[in-house]
What we know:
Structural class: mainly alpha
Oligomer: single chain
Distance between the termini: 34 Å
Radius of gyration: 20 Å
Strand order of the largest sheet: 1-2
Amino acid sequence: MTDWCDYDKFLLMASLAYNLSPKLEEYLQKVESLRRQILLTPINPKTELRLRWEASLQRVFWSLSLTDNPLGKPEMIRLISQQGIKKIGKDQKEVLNYKKALDYISENWQVTSSPITFATVKRLFEIYAKAIPTQNLGSINSVRKEIEQTLGYLQTGNENPVIQAGIAQIVAIELSPQTDGNGSLARLIPYLFLYKHGYDFRGLLVLEEYFRRDVVALKSAVTSVKHNNNLTLWLEYFAYGMIVQLEKALEDINKSRFQVDLPASFWKLNERQKEVLLMLEQPGARITNKNVQKMFGVSQITASRDLAGLASLGLVFVHGKGRSVFYTRA
Length: 330
């Protein structure tokens, strides 16, 4: 497993320059057009819930297919939907923790004025990489200065959020080769910048698929940065990838096209779950297993099943561990 490499091997901070080429400008305009279309297209709530859930699954699957994780999509579906999983090993934990990292971004970084800091990146690393025994915080702490410099550079200018996301990813890649925990972290970081500026695209963007489907093109785009000492070709590649994936998402919306066949019961909420969601609509509301037991006069097992079902659908976020676990509205 590759650790974060010595930053002196590639003085990336000296090569953050890029040109707003005609092609890049065209791509950015196309992304904006697709963003408006996705935001303004009416979607049935049940359809949107299912599309968002599938997009989350696809992010996990395509990203981890770029690592050594041997799990196939069917097993990942069972893990994320919490159906029939008896044994949780390293590979299963990696899937669940990558999903938790995505949830962290979705919960904390949608349209916010808060700056993305080293602590933010470190938190992502902690959530995801704790599933990988040979990863440790020392590897990310060793490049704290370089990360802070990059984050400062990105957040003091007025660059388009797509440009910020693309630069953030290539910096993460060059700080660490795109393998295992560090490579996955590099694929998570762009979402921080996109979500922060309202570019969540209703949770339907799956950039990881674009990277995985043509690894040769990905490697060529990464190599172009060192070869040209310029980010333009990489940013063109990155922006075009967003177009490819957003066009796919828009087509899925318009055709109500699903890729995962789960039982209808998985998507159906019982009356208790509906009431829990209504309660959690209140600002700052949270709920625990004991709260559900008292509210509805049900057992601990039934309350756990209700809350786990809401979590697996992406309708609530899970916080804490053990007896301190509580839930908030997604």
